[in-house]
Amino acid sequence: MKNSAIFMVSFTTGFLIVLTALAFTKLGFSCMFVLTVIGQLLVALMVYKVLRDQYTTDKTFEDFYEDHPIGKEENYR
User: Fold this and answer.
1) Could you give the C-alpha distances from 60 to 57, 66, 70, in angstroms and in order?
2) Torsion angle, CA of 21/31/34/44, rounded to 10 degrees?
3) Tens-digit pLDDT profile for residues 13-50
4) Which residues contact 25 (CB under 8 A, 6 or more apart)?
5) pTM, two decimal places
6) Residues 39, 15: contact at Cβ < 8 Å?
7) With 76 labelled, which of 4, 43, 57, 62 sits at a CA distance of 20 to 30 A?
8) CA atoms of 65 and 50, how far apart (whole Å)
9) Nearest-angstrom CA–CA distance, 9 and 17
10) Nearest Cα to 35, choosing from 10, 47, 43, 46?
11) 3-state SS assignment for residue 35
12) Chain centre distance of CA 50
């Protein structure tokens, strides 16, 4: 993913964490409602940006996980 997609994921995650923390304060219902709607719009925008990102990799399904390659254990012992 390009930096724009990574930024969008981290910004949306941070916004939703702050929104969750604000739910425990005595903030008014209308303010929380507006922030929740903004959070939902941010999630939709984040999904769109991640799916439309022009990210390419040279990894295949044969590589599986880099930290635990399946079928290639003899090379790492």
Assistant:
1) 8, 11, 12
2) -10
3) 999 999 999 999 999 999 999 999 999 999 999 999 98
4) none
5) 0.70
6) yes
7) 57
8) 21
9) 12
10) 43
11) helix
12) 8
